Amino acid sequence: MNRKERTEQKMQELFHSHAAGEEGTDGAFMQILQGYIFGDVCYTGSLDNRMRELVTVTVLTTLGTLPQLKAHVQASLNAGCTPVEIREAVYQCAPFIGFPKTLNAISTMNEVFAGNNIELPLPSQRTLTGENEEERYQRGLAIQAPLYGDEIAGRYTWLPGEFAQAVPRFLTELCFGDFVTRTGLDGKTRELLTVVLLAALGGAELQVKSHVQGALKAGNTKEEVVCALTHASGYLGIPRLFNALNACKDLLQRDE
Predict the structure, then answer these.
(1) Contact between 46 and 225 (Cβ < 8 Å)
(2) pTM beyond 0.85, yes or no
(3) Pfam families this protein is in (predicted)?
(4) What is the 3-state secondary structure (H, E, C) of the chain?
């Protein structure tokens, strides 16, 4: 297939619509956009449509671009993602982008679900029992420590008073205890999505490198990490792609 045929095929697969032509006020721009994302990037690397759409949903949630998120929640369903998988991808953005932007994304997502006659609320994926106040910390630490060790706790001992312990603890309880303990997405997928989320934030290259290392430990290959970041480039922009790749070059260099 040539580039035009690839773009048309991918648009049909994901959106059940034709690729852009000359119609509308900005047909030429849409042809460039679709040609790059759906004609080039979607055919480069190993990730399938389902994983690519989870990456896209994560990036668009991070950026707060709700009209595009709405379109890609539908595309995710068309690609074979379950509603639970899509919801978990959106939910786990909260510790990184804050609750308000995540709530906006959830509202947009649920609008698409309702339009597809998907019954809400979706089944709960919570595994915490709530019987022990230490559960969030202990369950979260059991996931965090094998991937990241205790470096965060050691890094913030300089904070005044109770914050030296509270800040690292909040990270463990919220990111790993409240979200990563949930079912609906496996740990490998969650770590890969976290990498592209951090890349999309910009200015979080230290965290990108840390989570690339975590993603590799969780079972992702170097190629999958690079594929996910490259796939996200049409949404987060080329400079943030290069910043993320450069930040973890030593981790992602191909094996000789």
Answers:
(1) no
(2) yes
(3) CMD (PF02627)
(4) CCHHHHHHHHHHHHHCCCCCCCCCCCHHHHHHHHHHHHHHHHHCCCCCHHHHHHHHHHHHHHHCCHHHHHHHHHHHHHCCCCHHHHHHHHHCCHHHHCHHHHHHHHHHHHHHHHHCCCCCCCCCCCCCCCCCCCHHHHHHHHHHHHHHCCHHHHHCCCCCCCHHHHHHHHHHHHHHHHHHCCCCCCHHHHHHHHHHHHHHHCCCHHHHHHHHHHHHHCCCCHHHHHHHHHHHHHHHCHHHHHHHHHHCHHHHCCCC
